[in-house]
Amino acid sequence: MVGRTPVRPSRNSIKEGLKPVKDMNGFRTSVTPGPSGFSSSDDSLDIGWKSRLLGDILVGERSKERDLKPYAAGKGRGRRNIPARPRAQAAVLAIGALLAGQIYCSGGKRTDVIIPTEGRFRLIVVDQAGPGEPWGKSVGDIDGDGFEDIIVGGHDTDRRGLVERALNRLGIRKSRPSPGELVWYRNPDWQKQAVSIDRRFSTDHEVVDIDKDGRSDIVSLTDSDLVWFRNPDWMPFLIDQRVLHDIEIADFDGDGDADIVARNQSGFGYEDGDRIHFYRQDSPLQWRHFAFDAPHGEGLKSADLNGDGRIDVIVNRYWYENPGTLAESVPWEKREYGRTWEWADVFIDTADINQDGRCDIVLAPSEPKGHRYRISWFEAPGQENGAWLEHIIDQDVETVHHFVGACDMDRDGRIDVVTAEMHQGEDPDEIAVYWNKEGGRWEKEVIATTGSHSMRIVDIDRDGDWDLIGANHGGEHQAVELWENLTFTKPKERLAKSELTVPDPIRPRPFPTGL
User: Fold this and answer.
1) pLDDT in tens, 428-439
2) Which of 98, 99, 93 is nearest to 166 (CA)?
3) DSSP state at residue 381
4) 114/123 Cα distance (integer angstroms)
5) SS3 category, 147
6) How many other CB atoms are found less than 10 A from the CB of residue 177?
7) 91, pLDDT greater than 60
8) Distance (Å, rounded) from C-alpha 454 to C-alpha 405?
9) Is the pTM of this model over 0.85?
10) Per residue in 209-243, pLDDT tens?
11) CB of 144 within 8 A of CB of 481?
12) Whole-number Å distance between alpha carbons of 417 and 354
């Protein structure tokens, strides 16, 4: 087994302030959401729980690989039907678990690889052996040099043996799983520096100046907490002890500081994706929490949908209008945009697809594997209470598209759509660009078949176009990857901020200038 040496946190001083206020499409918005939680509780299996536990550990029934039936939108509590396993099979699996011994995942040495590809993108492998199970990815200017760095949070593989894990769950011998790590990669040499090496990091991380000291901090989800890390000493500060799947950050109440909206998922045994949680920042150490009901499902996005200068919240099928005040006593009005959309687990982005000056919504089905649905964009109405119109981009895709992003990738003036399939889907696991052509046509180009998860769109090299970063959350291929956009002639040197011809990336948030 190759050991993994912890890297000391960077203590570089950071001098530059935070970045402009609009996203890549010119809309006032917050940080984009990130991805997916994977454990589940099989309470509906009709077998003895101890045998079930050992069998599940052996075959990975508690992992995201399991095929689950989607719940119908708006029906019941969103429970999924999980077939029962026969007692005999569970007994055999239990015996196998006791005989199997210990299984470890070895670490590795980081390798930077640049792979030329035919077409409009070039793959750069930032880290071949980064954090294990990199569930969360983000970007932001950590060292204040004006260029976006890459942030990756690893949940890591549980290195305890099968027997040890079984004994722990049975209460016979308590032990803790190995921690994951949160790291950032310095642009452009991609040197890895540690933020934390003692937590199991989950599915979303966002970069923002929480304490308004001019440095970009990191807000992270772990298995059980919402926490922020102070730059540059990376001291952690707990915001809430709660299991969550997605976070978005914006100044929702217009008071000049960063607030947080969050949501868990309804699948994989959680069943609490039907609540939207707000965290109003009263100070960096004091956060006021309140929540309200939402439909079951997965996915979260925030953007100013109605052009009133306030950041609204979007989930599957509905959006919630910001009243301008963050308080439990002040309701957010629920508005429907996806009356023709039934899939509850989604990835969401926003952009002005038809260039009419209004913010549209793009949806992709994100969970679970083995089912088929579609990718669509929803046209914002011209009138306040008008109906949203669905336009299909791809009629038939597997429901593992755990990333969708909308921006002008080739600088032709039209908004394109980028998607990624997770590794657990049917092969090939495509990363693709849907080019927006004249007449409402979409032309699909596959740029990779290795899959990815909760990617980010960012002008990483400051050359005036949008690049992609991402990594699979698990499986055989977990490299941290950067896809450099080659769709038009590059300048010989990086552009300064004043020379950029595309809007700045959407993170981190500037405060107190508002959103």
Assistant:
1) 999 999 999 999
2) 98
3) P
4) 6
5) coil
6) 16
7) no
8) 10
9) no
10) 999 999 999 999 999 999 999 999 999 999 999 99
11) no
12) 13
